[in-house]
């Protein structure tokens, strides 16, 4: 895990983990310019859906709400 600033968590430092396989597929579909998916990480704080590139916290977004 790495520690990064999370925009969804108010800019506080949070632990980020590597993307799971299904998360990688989602990011690849939404970030086609960046094929190196190993550079994207997801915020590990419970309830946060933010993913972002390791070197650029502005290059990221949120995963959609889970279907109920």
From TrEMBL:
Domain of life: Bacteria
The name this protein goes by in its record: Uncharacterized protein
